[in-house]
Amino acid sequence: LTKVVALFFLSNCFPEINDSEGHPSSSHQTLKGTSKWATSLENLLEDPEGVKRFREFLKKEFSEENVLFWLACEEFKKTQGKKQMQEKAKEIYMTFLSSKASSQVNVEGQSRLNETILETPHPLMFQKLQDQIFNLMKYDSYSRFLKSDIFLNLKKCEEQEENPPEAQTAAKRASRIYNT
């Protein structure tokens, strides 16, 4: 019965959250992070659910490529082996940085970064550009995300789960009984 109530609650608060078969998701992780996400962009980006929600928001703003580039750079830093680094560096360049990129990010000095740098890759080769995108998100998109319906609805549902209306009603009844 508890799972049914949780699924009903989740489907009402988050109608867009469904599993692969279209049923409401039963994951409670969805409801755990808004307070932490609101403290910093770093905390938001450390949480897979936070990244998912932030991407959802950025997609609506037509700037999802920023977080995708940032994530690609984070993944690139973990890459081992020169051949793999060359392949991933080229993929990042072609996807986000070249003039023909499918998801081009807007960074300063972009034109100075050309394909010759891809021959000798190193883990921090995109760091300066990644920092520019991080700051763009931090001082622009992130503050709008915290005011967005996506974030505010998640926060509201999280608060309702922590303080269900029945518990508040019981507390009010108890206070009326003892205060009379």
From TrEMBL:
Region (Disordered): 161-180
Domain RGS span(s) in chain numbering: 40-155
One cellular component term from this protein's GO annotations in UniProt: cytoplasm
BP term (GO), one: regulation of G protein-coupled receptor signaling pathway
Signal peptide start-end: none
Keyword Membrane attached: no
Highest taxon of the lineage: Eukaryota
Annotated keywords: GTPase activation
Sample GO molecular function, one term: GTPase activator activity
UniProt name for this protein: RGS10 protein
Gene source species: Indicator maculatus
